[in-house]
Amino acid sequence: MSTARGREQIDRRYSLLPEEISSCRRCDRLVEYCATFNDSSAQKHPEYHYWANPVPGFGDLRANLLIIGLAPGAQGANRTGRPFTGDAAGEVLYRALYNHGFSNQPAVRDRTDGLVLRNVFITNAVKCVPPKNRPTGPEKTNCLDWLKSELGLLKNVRVVLAMGKDSFESYVNLLNREGKIKRKSDLRFVHGSVIRLEGERRILVSTYHFSRYNLNTRVLTEEMVDMLFEDINQILSEG
Ligand code: SF4
Predict the structure, then answer these.
(1) Structurally, what CATH architecture does the domain formed by 3-237 represent?
(2) What is the pLDDT of residue 3?
(3) pTM for the whole structure
């Protein structure tokens, strides 16, 4: 198959995937919880129409960098329908992406704000907002199929940035499912770690989640975020 034909097929498949993900109703608990955000009593920003559905990933299909968060924030991505858009974690993430050449603007607001990502695709391990930000094991397993579908379209990914331990574990589960690792326990989440697996072209980089809690407690600082993206750009420049 020619490269142009392959690209065409990927573009066609991708034109359907976000809708398929948004329509997913596989996890009863999460579907019920999502629906509660249609009621203004659960909305911190009732002036907005809440998305309140699974949130698909978005970005550059030719990306070398894939960022995986845990799940939509209740008042952020669950409201706007775009990963990391509308909450504190996203403010830091999108500012850093702009500062390091991955987007056209440092600030984001909603899906109509004109943001264009370059060389990066952003998604979550779990596409539905979970109560207390904690998806269950079966919910994470259910959603792994969607992560696999997204990754299947992203043929150029060289670096996978896992944000937080849960995202790291989801990606490791995917590697295990694909037979790319022998034992999941061989891979441990450590902030800043760079894992290169034999026979696997994607390099796994880990970071603490950019959550408001981690930022307020200075578990993670903006300086650390800058260093992280400098490292990622260095890895990508190595070809
Ligand atoms: S968490 Fe994933 S698998 Fe479960 S309902 Fe949402 S989109 Fe579907």
Answers:
(1) 3-Layer(aba) Sandwich (3.40)
(2) 75
(3) 0.95
The Å distance, Cα 217 to ligand 1 centre, comes to: 31
Report the pLDDT value the prediction gives residue 1, as an integer from 0 to 100: 52
Pocket residue to mutate for ligand 1, from 23, 28, 127, 149, most atoms within 8 A of Cβ: 127
Q: What is the pLDDT of residue 2?
A: 59
Atom of ligand 1 nearest to the CA of 31: 5
Domain extents in the chain = 3-237
Q: Both tokens of residue 146? A: 């969607």
How much distance in Å is there from the Cα of 54 to the middle of ligand 1?
6
- Which residue has tokens 């022998």? 182
- Tokens in use for 18? 């976000």
3-state DSSP helix/strand/coil % of the chain, to nearest 5? 45, 10, 45
Q: How far is the CA of 233 from the centre of ligand 1 (A)?
A: 32
